[in-house]
Amino acid sequence: MSRAAAGLVGSYAFVWGFAALATTLGVAAGVSYADARTLAFLFAFLVFLACFCWSFAAPRVAFVWAVLGGGSVVTSESATDGPFVEAKEIVGGFMIVSADSLAEAIESERSLLEGVKAEADVVVDTSGSVEQALGTLRSRGVL
């Protein structure tokens, strides 16, 4: 049972790290993200089969766990999340609220941002025109 678990779980963990690292290296080499990921997943299947078979041929189960578990940590820590900024790092945007009063606009903002950790800048424009409100945002450097 332990060798089978080492073969399945250890190989899966190792291949997960391998695929992340291979995708990162592919993107760093100039390959598009989608192509790098697809190529990494194709090779990952072969690597999984090799690791799984090796886990039954290895002399000790502890050695299998050490190699596959350690390899998964090394490869996954060497990789990044890809060429995209994570949502937890930055989210930006703006919202135009049309309201009859400033109090109503602030209440709308509170209800929309409830439970969200965010900064909000309030720009008050009383012209009633969306184009003029956008001009105000541009003049303040928001857009």
Protein architecture, described:
The protein has helices at 2-28, 33-57, 61-78, 102-112, 130-139. With 143 residues, it is mostly helical. The chain has two domains: 2-78, no CATH class; 102-139, no CATH class. Helix 1 packs antiparallel against helix 2 (33-57) and helix 1 (2-28) runs parallel beside helix 3. The longest helix is centred in the first third of the chain and has 27 residues, at 2-28.
Topology:
Blueprint: H1 2-28, H2 33-57, H3 61-78, H4 102-112, H5 130-139
List keywords for this structure.
mainly alpha, elongated, 64% helix, 143 residues
- Classify the beta-strand content into a percent band: under 5%
Task: Give the termini separation.
Answer: 60 Å
**Total count of domains:** 2
Low confidence ranges: none
Number of helices, counting only DSSP H or I runs of 4 residues or more: 5
Could you describe the largest sheet, including whether it forms a barrel?
none
What kind of oligomer do you see?
Answer: single chain
Radius of gyration: 26 Å
Helix proportion: 55-70%
Structural class: mainly alpha
Output the helix-strand order: HHHHH
List how many beta strands DSSP finds.
0
Instruction: Please tell me what the overall shape is.
Output: elongated
| Overall pLDDT level | 76
